[in-house]
Amino acid sequence: MVQPVDQPVIGVAIVTYNSAKIIANCLSSLLLSQGVRLRIVITDNASEDDTCDVVRAWANEHAETVSFAEKVSENLEGSDATLTLIRSPVNGGFAEATNRGLSLLMQDAEIELFWLLNPDCVVLPDTAENYARAGADGNFALMGGRTRFHDHPDRVQTDGGKVSRWTGVCQSVNWGREAASARMPVADELDFITGANCVASRRFLENVGLMEEDYFLYYEEVDWAFRRGDLELRVVPEAEVLHHGGTVIGTTSIGRRPSPFANYFNYRNRMRFVRRFLPLSAVGAYVFVLAKVIQLIPVGAFSEARAIIAGALELPPPADVRALLAPQSHDLAFSPRHRERMPR
Fold first, then answer.
1. pLDDT digits (tens, 9 = 90+) for 99-119
2. What is the pLDDT of residues 277-319, one digit of tens each?
3. What share of residues in the chain are helix, strand, coil (percent, to 5)?
4. Which of 40, 190, 248, 273 is most buried, by the most CB atoms less than 10 A from its CB?
5. Alpha helices (runs of H) in 138-215, residue ranges in sequence order
6. Superfamily assignment of 9-243 in CATH?
7. What are the backbone angles phi and psi of residue 203, rounded to the nearest 5°?
């Protein structure tokens, strides 16, 4: 990744978990980015597959243009490498891993923009440059573009998100609509930028801080956006990403129902978010839970319904949800207690 030194630098924070089949494509697409210099930090959340080996092999294959470093999570001193792999011994969740990557990238004074990117994303060659141009003044909180479905690139996955003040339910703007005709929202119409493809400014990170870590999965970026104060959101229509979505955890996609695992964390964290930011919406949030369960039971989706109830009431997770995480992650993932963010 040999680039002119006068180009702007963007830090890219990627979290992997059992991402062996997808991470190389993501990295290869980043390698084709134009008009910017990238520093990429991958934090691996104790993957049980060959994710780390795939990253090492990819770095070795591109050794002439990509410098590579590897760290354990307890040793986060700065690195000049263009690609750094942080190996976390325990899966502490999306926010904790993201915070580790951001903390390392923030040590580089050249980096003013910090791009959160899911490992199952493929970026277009001009996406990073469009972000760099739109965020050059740094006077914003979070910035996003258009994310399209990887397997249905003619369809929008999200153009940003809104939160219902009645129920706390998040809505992906333009989800499933034809990309060619869907109007891109303006920033004032959004409540948050989706964490799969989101750029944070240094000013935002220094003034507001890192992500809250007690969500483990889902609603971290919504919480983050609600803490932004007077800093604005920005929308960059020209910045496009293709995203598989739910490759490991079973998030909803076109024609696919959310898995029990996804339901448990989504409904649990919605209630946590509502209690923090929209306490008057708690009754509406519980009514939505009841309505969803009533909808699922007649179609035989008992596991999904059970996970929703357990999550919303902060009960211990069903066995099929618990089984998807290694035992050493259970306290971090399923604890009802608030977790302090990792120090900046």
1. 999 999 999 999 999 999 999
2. 999 999 999 999 999 999 999 999 999 999 999 999 999 999 9
3. 35, 20, 45
4. 40
5. 202-208
6. Spore Coat Polysaccharide Biosynthesis Protein SpsA; Chain A (3.90.550.10)
7. -60, -45
